Amino acid sequence: MELEFLGTSSGTPTRTRNVAGLALRMDGKGSGWALVDCGEGTQHRILRTALTLHQLRAIFITHLHGDHCYGLPGLLASAGLLNRSERLFIVGPRPLERYLQGVMETTELALPYPLTFVPVEELDGTDVLPDLTVRATELSHRMRSFAYTFTEKEVERRLDASKLAAAGVPRGPAWGLLQKGEDITLDDGRTVRPAEVLLPGRRPRRVIVAGDNDRPGLLAEAAIDADVLVHEATYTEPILAKVGPAPQHSSAQMVARFAETAALPNLVLTHFSPRYQDHHGPLTLADVAAEARAAYTGRLFLARDLARFALDRQGRLEEVTPPRAAPPPRQGTAGDAAEA
Amino acid sequence: MELEFLGTSSGTPTRTRNVAGLALRMDGKGSGWALVDCGEGTQHRILRTALTLHQLRAIFITHLHGDHCYGLPGLLASAGLLNRSERLFIVGPRPLERYLQGVMETTELALPYPLTFVPVEELDGTDVLPDLTVRATELSHRMRSFAYTFTEKEVERRLDASKLAAAGVPRGPAWGLLQKGEDITLDDGRTVRPAEVLLPGRRPRRVIVAGDNDRPGLLAEAAIDADVLVHEATYTEPILAKVGPAPQHSSAQMVARFAETAALPNLVLTHFSPRYQDHHGPLTLADVAAEARAAYTGRLFLARDLARFALDRQGRLEEVTPPRAAPPPRQGTAGDAAEA
């Protein structure tokens, strides 16, 4: 599984950070990718990656503030101009449907592919991604806001050679059938079931991507068995004290303390106030990192635009951003080989 | 007067061209600037210029296709986050108001500054810019689309020294009053009016910025005494023949022929289909330029993102893009000194 950050700024874009957008890529061939939040300019960021709008399976919107959804109409329109034909799922709070319908009607946007809106309240039991189950958890913010928890549907299982020998299953096609989950019948008439000869499966990987939220503890239940939490850290404590609680955002310390208590092995902070400069200035992201580090002993990451992270089968997150991104492939006719 | 292109692509952004947006800057200190069209990502382009959202006076939307208006909600929101307090005028086709109201309501966008919507049908006689009068002309497109014609309200006038001498006006404060347009009374009781002693004024400069349109001839009346036409040239003739007339766009040849007939001295083409590459490829912008050049003998320009053009008082347009743009000033807290 891979996470690729398309935007990491809160409220307004800066010259180096766009507003919210996160691509979640599954391992499987053809399983495509999912987008969590779609701030203005998300489609422009996608042009700088290897992601394509054709392989996008579903879009999850955490909440309806503009910096999380104003890129949606343009992305949908571009997918249409690029001749997408496959169904696209859009999951989000209920007013999202009214927002989209209003935009599509007033701007006469007709799409050449089917769009299915799934209200977040009806997400449980809905099958929107081929490889992952998705659950929503309500958070605490100025408007209704949600976290999405993505869990692998299936984990690969390996055969236990000693159990196969004990059961007398001869090496050959029968092994393959058992690994695929099928019962086999031996020459002597006995039936062997996969559960009898497979090693215990690893824990399915689980990633939580949270929307804006000032009570990280609301994720306590979702965090059980989670490998990664991606959470906003809009402020540091001194700035939160100055701004006050009204915007209902988290500080780095609040999120870090929660992640420590929940024993989350990997924490990625994002959605930084534009007042924090990347490198030099009165306030920098080093301040955010230091505050989180002081309260959290797990693997800590601060997201950057176009940074990629891989989560391996042991649940360890690593940054895998290429040192310098290769020129991305063209998307339909909309790509352009040269970058100004 | 200056034109600064913020986006020059049609339909979808490319890696070098954003969707429609054009800044029109007046000469006068404090007169600010106007924006014509606001495709998604316009606020991101503005971060790469010296323009600020505080000095924006009015936004004119030519038509409601997404590539001309999907950047509007985000730009309005960012101006609010940057603490804009001055009124902002928005001019456009009537459904624009419904589009904006729907977005603002569903995404709970409250702005800390007053917004005044002026339906394009009611633009005549409305005073939206300090230095320019603006008129709209309806065009021909798949949805209602308009051109905006910007004309200087006042031109500077100079005194005619020989007429002042003949009228017996003594050099001194009286000259200044006459130049400011005030009558004066001489010691002998005679009244001298400015019209008697001023040189004839130059023609006020006039710039037409057209929306999507497949009948350039509709601009014949607006083009009388115009110095500059900015018009879409989405296709070249061979591609238009292939695509067919349904999208209702112009070819470079169609616009060039019209500009030639109307004796327009300066023509700027923009809104190019992403199929035309900047430099290398089966189709490039050199094809667009060659087709227009063959039909037009005036000063021809193809717009590029972030290209700036100055229109001098003699009505001559020149490109004045700095060879390499200086780092832009920070905008409130949203700027970021370093560019990734």
TrEMBL record, chains A, B:
The keyword Metal-binding applies. InterPro entries: RibonucZ/Hydroxyglut_hydro, RNase_Z/BN. It comes from the Bacteria. Zinc phosphodiesterase, which displays some tRNA 3'-processing endonuclease activity. Probably involved in tRNA maturation, by removing a 3'-trailer from precursor tRNA. This is Ribonuclease Z. Its EC number is 3.1.26.11. Residues 318-340 are annotated as: Disordered. The keyword rRNA-binding does not apply. Pfam families: Anti-Pycsar_Apyc1. Keywords: Endonuclease, Hydrolase, Metal-binding, Nuclease, tRNA processing, Zinc. It is an enzyme of class 3 (hydrolase).
